[in-house]
Amino acid sequence: MSVLVFTCPKTKEPLRSGIDTDAQSLALVRQLPVSIFCPACGRVHRFTVKDGEFIADTNHPLAPR
Ligand SMILES: [Zn+2]
Description:
By secondary structure, this protein is mostly beta strands. The strands form 2 sheets. Strands 2-1-5 form a 3-stranded antiparallel β-sheet. It has a two-stranded antiparallel ribbon with strand order 3-4. It has one domain (2-56). Helices cover 9% and strands 46% of the residues. The chain has 1 helix and 5 strands. The protein is globular. Zinc ion (ZN) is lined by residues 8, 10-11, 38, 40-41, 43, 45.
């Protein structure tokens, strides 16, 4: 599984979208708007899917502990 990651425009911290996807599905939703709460600066940022960086991630860091 891979996850879509954005960058906080304020702090430049990586911001995990929690969107687990793959390259094929990602291509279909490039224009989809995404709102993400940013723990780094405490605000909600709006992106579109194409602004995100698509990284391989098998650790599921967003899974509830
Ligand atoms: Zn932020």
